[in-house]
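Help needed: design a sequence for this.
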């Protein structure tokens, strides 16, 4: 007997997404990254076109310099929010988590750097998806202030 979880079918993605209780706090099975290189903390929401995550910056983070989370960390946070979405979708389809790679970054802008202890809220939107390439736009906020944004091409490695 197959267990059918309550959820919703998204025709544009061609996937049925089971309902999860948000926020999802145990995200380690949804992303390929492992400590100390995890730059997302919670999955806040997923819908047909967007995903939101949160992340609290800790003092021992590899991207901390002079008590500030650096630009590369903001970019990685956007990429890992996309990975979190992909992992969630894999979970919904009962498939293994796929490894993704940043193929290109366009129009990366940083307006401010967050500090240790700050909570980032990151949203990615799916702009286009063709085969194993997904184009996303990403924005990172802290205390309702936009810190960074970019467009990114992410390539998925299928087994």
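Sure. Designed sequence:
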């Amino acid at each position: 007997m197959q267990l059918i979880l309550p959820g919703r079918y998204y025709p544009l993605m061609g996937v049925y997404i089971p309902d999860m209780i948000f926020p999802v706090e145990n995200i380690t099975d949804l992303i390929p990254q492992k400590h100390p290189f995890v730059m997302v903390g919670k999955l806040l929401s997923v819908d047909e076109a967007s995903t939101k995550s949160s992340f609290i910056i800790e003092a021992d983070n590899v991207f901390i310099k002079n008590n500030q989370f650096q630009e590369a960390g903001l970019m990685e946070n956007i990429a890992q929010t996309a990975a979190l979405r992909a992992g969630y979708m894999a979970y919904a389809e009962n498939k293994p988590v796929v490894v993704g790679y940043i193929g290109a970054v366009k129009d990366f802008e940083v307006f401010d750097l967050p500090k240790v202890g700050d909570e980032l809220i990151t949203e990615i939107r799916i702009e286009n998806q063709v085969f194993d390439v997904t184009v996303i736009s990403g924005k990172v906020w802290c205390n309702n202030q936009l810190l960074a944004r970019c467009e990114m091409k992410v390539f998925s490695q299928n087994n």
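The first strand starts at residue 7 and ends at 10.
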